Amino acid sequence: MAVNVEAIFQKSGALLKGHFLLTSGRHSPVYWEKFRVLQFPEYTEQLCQMIARHFQKQNVRVVAGPTTGGIIIAYEVARQLGVRSVFAEKEGNLRVFRRGFNIDPGERVLIVDDILTTGGSIGEVMAAVNKLGGRIIGIGVLVNRSEQEIDFGVPLFACHRAVTQTYQPQSCPLCAAGVPLVRPGTNQPPTS
């Protein structure tokens, strides 16, 4: 059964249009609000099943994701693969595994995340896994919205590919047009 990822995001009200401040600091006219999708277990299960199926023959031993959306995705993909899940939390400019989570040297790790824009969060989780000596076998994301292909050095699988223009704040045409900037998750303008 083919899963129409964009339809899932639309049905759940997760495909937003406006002027958004992304986690990367860039601005965008489109925002993929993954939590509107992740609130529905049946949608989460369907999307994570796509990732699990793609990597099912890779002998994954642990699925790792960044906080916050990555926790839900890592858990569900791990559940479907029959392995454990862990998540990396922000600590200063890095991500680290806390709460007793560990990755053994050589352990085969699948990294998952919700929306890929610049690859910053994924890169941080990769660094945390590498620091512990884990072996990263691939990356799975719900939506790859990056403007350019990002080479992580391992296979990347996206449930959906949706290239969306983003802008540096100083060259954002939405700012120039006076469109109010929204920080997703708050519906309020960002503080300077």
Secondary structure elements and pairings:
Elements: H1 5-11, E1 15-21, E2 27-32, H2 34-38, H3 41-55, E3 62-66, H4 69-81, E4 84-91, E5 94-97, E6 108-116, H5 120-131, E7 135-144, E8 156-161, H6 173-176
Parallel strand pairs: 3-4, 3-6, 6-7, 7-8
Antiparallel strand pairs: 1-2, 4-5
Summarize the structure in words.
This protein has 192 residues and is an alpha/beta fold. The protein has a single domain (5-176), classed as Rossmann fold (3-Layer(aba) Sandwich), CATH 3.40.50.2020. It is 29% helix and 29% strand. The chain has six helices and eight strands; from the N terminus they run αββααβαβββαββα. The protein has a six-stranded mixed sheet, with helices on both faces. The chain has a two-stranded antiparallel ribbon with strand order 1-2. Helix 5 (120-131) links the parallel strand 6 and strand 7 (135-144). Helix 3 (41-55) crosses helix 4 (69-81). The protein is globular. The protein starts with a helix and ends in a 16-residue tail after the last helix. The model has no long low-confidence stretch (mean pLDDT 92).
Please give the domain count: 1
Global Rg:
17 Å
Instruction: Please name the CATH architecture.
Output: 3-Layer(aba) Sandwich
Number of strands: 8
- The share of residues in helices is 25-40%
Distance between the termini: 46 Å
> How would you describe the shape?
globular
- Major beta sheet, strand line-up: 5-4-3-6-7-8
Provide a count of the helices: 6
State the CATH class.
Alpha Beta
